[in-house]
Structure formats: structure tokens, C-alpha cells
Amino acid sequence: MSNTPTDRRYAKSHEWLKDEGDGSFTIGITDHAQGLLGDLVFVDLPEVGTAVEAGNDCAVVESVKAASDVYSPVTGEVIAVNEALDGAPETINDDAFGNGWMFKVKVADAGESDSLLDAAGYDALIAEEE
Amino acid sequence: MSKQTVLYEKHQAMGARLVPFGGWDMPLHYGSQLDEHHQVRRDAGMFDVSHMTVVDLKGGGAKSYLRYLLANDVARLKESGKALYSCMLNEQGGVVDDLIVYYLNDEWYRMVVNAGTTEKDLAWLDRMSTEYDVTITPRHDLAMIAVQGPNARAKALPLLSANLQQTGAELKPFNAVADGEWFVARTGYTGEDGFEIMLPGERAAHFWQQLNDVGVAPCGLGARDTLRLEAGMNLYGSDMDEETSPLEAGLGWTVAWEPEARNFVGRPVLERQRKDPQKKRFVGLVLTGRGVLRNHLKLFDGQQAIGEITSGGFAPTLERSIALARVEPDIGGTCEVEIRGKRVAAQVVKPPFARNGKATITL
Questions:
Q1: CB nearest A65 (choices: B222, B290, B316)
Q2: Predicted structure pTM score
Q3: CATH architecture observed for domain A11-109
Q4: Which residue in B has a C-alpha nearest to residue A44's C-alpha?
Q5: What tens digit of pLDDT does each residue of B25-65 get?
Q6: Which positions in chain B touch A62 (Cβ < 8 Å)?
């Protein structure tokens, strides 16, 4: 049984994206991604006000093992970051789809996320990789 | 196709994430690398180190052979069971491998070499042996389990033979005792007390299960790496290799210069380097800014490049990022590390960073 939430969309690079209904999206990495990375020990978030472009790296998560880039699935401006992660990066391991959210982006084109995967599509992607 | 140790099925059954390492499929962790790290610092954990190779060296020429082969001097070993850490050098003074050698008697020594280097090590051992009366036998029939942590010995001892329970309990650090095909050494690679136990391969799965049943947690290569890094212990292939001399890898203490008359492989090069004021230093780093130190990151003093990290990572005991680094001889007490294009401050320290459950540096 998949635990991939159906209320959001997914990038092939393992980020999730949730439409907040006000022209902004909350972004994080998936539970599958945190599992691959292992225990997270450091998160480098973008600054509020940063312009991000779809497909470009804008944050970094580091596990005990390695550093990994996080890509913004959409183009826009960072309007909030999850500062609680700074002292507690393991929150992403514990709750990747909830309290482990990373940053919020205000987008110019809300339709941009339509090209991303839905939960079923993302589950199929994971199944294919394994 | 990677090789599997005799404990492979145990690892699978215990939920290991298995990864290729040194030609073997080995457990990276069994769920959480951090938990495993803390388990070893606070209680007891076990590692399958059967991928490493045990080599027996027997014969009347074994001692003189090893005195020529190794940069440390096995003549220092006088009591049966005593262990010695040494580098094995090439003629250029580079490190072919680092190893532990145990003295059993004048005609029997046993060494343990790294997994990834086994093939070239055996070829090198063979090539260096032509003038000596020594028989070199890799013991692929033996498995090896490291049981490490403050409670490791107390938990492991009752599972051993009556004979080993007694002799094992009396072992001093860096000593070993044999009983038939079992071999118990009070050594390790974590900075904690414990045993490294060699045993017949067919007995390993049962013994692993028994250890698990008395609360010794299975631990993977991930925790093994953070534990050894905190303990300030070098990793072959990262901190030194065939291009690096032990004098530039913080291993000068393992080179036995006395007696002067002892000729060992690489000695002439090391003698020259010993007097070179420009030779690099090997130091510890603690990151004071934000981020994680990683292998190969470059170090700076202002615009001046002053060295490189040889192994870096997150230190769970210190909750900081730490590293071992090779640097210019005149480095000061602080430096900067370039992480993803940004300069981050680091403090220069003398390893180890943590041992016996506690930090050994003041931050």
C-alpha cells in the first residue's frame, strides 16, 4: 500500500509540491528520497526573496552519507522557508510530507505544476527505479 | 558480481541496506546509521568485518620477513598475542595498505588487511617473500565479527568457549588469544573497548544471532566510518594510499626508526622525507560554520590554498562536522573550507575527536 499523499504533485527528482490555493506552493522531498539519503544532519535552505527557476537546484540536504541537491519544481520567488529544520534536520526523516516541508514558492504561472507527476505516477517511477 | 560474506543472509533478515564495498555486498546500515553509532558509543554494537582478509605467516623466516616488509617493527612484539598496527610501504614510501599484525610465536604471525586491497596485498606479500622462509596463507575460511562498545566485552564473553571466557576476560588492550580456530583480539576501529573475533565461517551466523539475542546491535559500514573518524583513525584509500607516505598521513608514530640498521621497504625515501620541513601535516578539523565537511573539499587561508580534506563527515557524538585533512606545514589554528563555492570557518584540532563515549576535544 502506497503512503504517497494524493493531495500534491511530484517531480522526477523526488520533490513534492503542494498547491496552497493562493498562488503559492509548499515544497519538500519525498519519503522515498529521505529513505535513500539516510539520516539527515544538515539542511541548507534558500533565502526568502530568492528567485528560483523550475529544474534548478535551490537547496541542499546532507545526510551522514552524502550531500544532495534539491530542485525547485516551479519558477517563482521563495516566500517562506522552514527554519525549524536548521536545528532539527531529522524532521525530514520523520515526517517528509508534513513537518519536514522545506520552502514555499509564489509562482507566476500556477498551471506550471500540471506537467508534474501525480501520486500514482510517482509510485510508478519509484517502482521502476527499484 | 560482488562477493557475499557468510553473514549475508543474516544481514538481509535483519533489514540491512546492502551496498557494494571493496568488492563485497556489505550492510550500510540496518535502519539508522546514527542510532548504530550511538549504540556503539553507549552500549554495544557488532560489525561484520569478514570482508577483510586474515593472512597467516608461518615459518622460521616469518619474523625477518615482516621486519623487512613493514614500516613498524614486529621485533617489538615479545608476548604471544600482542598486536601491532603498521603500514606496508612500496619502494617510493607510499602506503600499499595499513594492517594489524599479531604475534603468536616466532614462527607464526597473523595479519589482517583491508578488503579492497586484498588482491594486490597478497601479490605484494608474495613478491617480497622470495628471500625468506615464510608460508603465506590467506584464511578465507575464517569470518570476523567486531563487537564494540563499553558493554561489548561483557556481552560477548559468556558466548565464548569456557577456555576463551577466561583468557578473553584477562586480555589487555591490543592483545589477542587463540583457541583452536577461534581468535579473540581486544582491538577495534571505533575508539571503544571491545573485541574483534575471528571464527570458522560456518559458525559465524549462529554466533551473530547469539550476540544479537544478548542485545548487541548489528551496525553497518556507515556507523563504522563515523566511529573511526571520531576516533581519529585513518581510512585506507581516503586518508592515505600508494601516493602518500605515512609521514603525511599522521602515521609517523607507526614508523619504527630504531634500530637504524633495520632496512624496511620504503625506508630510504622516508628518511629523506623525515628531514623535509616542507612535508605536509595531517590534522583534524571541526567545522565552526554551517554545513558538512566532505572528502576532497579544499582548505584556504585567505586566498592561499593550504590543503584538502581526506575524510570528512558528521560526528554524531559531537553533533558537529569533523574531518581529517592534509595541510601545509605552517597552518594556523583556524582555516576556511570551500563548500559549494562558499567559505566556511573551521578550527584546526589534534585528533582524536571522541573516544570511550566522550568528546576528546574542547570546542
A1: B222
A2: 0.94
A3: Beta Barrel (2.40)
A4: B291
A5: 999 999 999 999 999 999 999 999 999 999 999 999 999 99
A6: 291-292, 314
